[in-house]
Amino acid sequence: MTLTEIGIGALILLSGFLSMAAGVGALRFPDVLTRLHAATKPQVLGLAVVLLAIVLRVPAWGVVSTVVLIMTFQLLTQPMTAHMLGRAAYRTDALRRDLLIEDDLGRDIAEHEQERDDDRRVP
């Protein structure tokens, strides 16, 4: 067994651990926002690690280009999906507001509603 194969095995184990941590966090955390954080951050890193293991195992241009495309699309879609799910959970009151440290979105919504009410009053 070569040093490269040991490194590849370690990367695959790390990827499995990160994916497991994402699953455990999604089950154990108390509200939608923390579950989204737990599901997206380690999952993306776990995918990056396993893709690195694939590139180390098969270092061909076709594999590298495919891995770059996969990681690019994952990095573009995963944060946006989590953001949109978080906003939907916020607007439908499907989260625990007592766990929020700072409620920027609530402040922005209140300001927008105040401006809208002011515009309606002016003839």
Q: Strand tally, please?
A: 0
Task: Please trace the helix and strand order, writing H or E for each element.
Answer: HHHH
End-to-end gap: 81 Å
- Rounded to an integer in angstroms, the radius of gyration calculated over CA atoms is 21 Å
Poorly predicted ranges: none
* Residues in helices, as a percent range: over 70%
Task: Categorize the overall geometry.
Answer: elongated
Mean pLDDT: 88
Tell me what portion of residues adopts beta-strand conformation: under 5%
Q: How would a textbook summarize the main sheet?
A: none
Determine the structural class based on helices, strands and strand pairing: mainly alpha
Number of separate helices: 4
Describe the structure.
Helix content is 82%, strand content 0%. The chain has four helices and no strands.
List the defining traits of the structure above.
123 residues; mainly alpha
How would you summarize the topology of this molecule?
Layout: H1 3-28, H2 32-57, H3 61-91, H4 104-121
Helix pairs in contact: 1-2, 2-3
Give me a quick take on this structure.
This protein is mostly helical.
